[in-house]
Amino acid sequence: MHLEQIDHIAMRCASPEATKAWYMNTLGFEHVFPDHGSGTPIFLRLGSTFINLFPQKDGEQAAADSRIWHFALRAATYEDFRAAQTELQARGISFGFRDHEIAHSIYFTDPDGVLLEITTYDLPNAPR
Q1: What is the rounded CA–CA span in Å between residue 110 and residue 35?
Q2: What pLDDT is attached to residue 101?
Q3: Which residues touch 45 (CB under 8 Å, ≥6 apart)?
Q4: 24-48: per-residue pLDDT in tens?
Q5: What distance in Å separates the CA atoms of residue 93 and residue 95, rounded to the nearest whole number?
Q6: How many CA atoms lie within 13 A of 127 on its CB side?
Q7: What confidence tier does 102 reach under pLDDT thresholds 50, 70, 90?
Q8: CB contact at 8 A, 70 and 110
């Protein structure tokens, strides 16, 4: 078996339209395939990463209680990583920083409580 990458992450949301707007406005995802089916799921894309948003079913656990612990988006450069922090701060989104020695990451949550990470391996003063 030869696989290339994760194709998509499927998430249940209290309000898929509100979650769509947050991912588009906050992280720069684009809404793709808007005319597919009845609009469910909502397909979002950032580069080659897709997120599919589904409405939460009655009686179903909230996303924060699901088995997804978190997912990470990569900033190619340290400058991009710092710019992401500045943008999140400007939007009033708090985050925590972690030095993983081989990478730096920040952690924050989306409107449904899903933990998100932005990480970079492009560390200052690291040998290239």
Answers
A1: 25
A2: 86
A3: 29, 30, 32, 51
A4: 999 999 999 988 878 789 999 999 8
A5: 7
A6: 0
A7: confident
A8: no
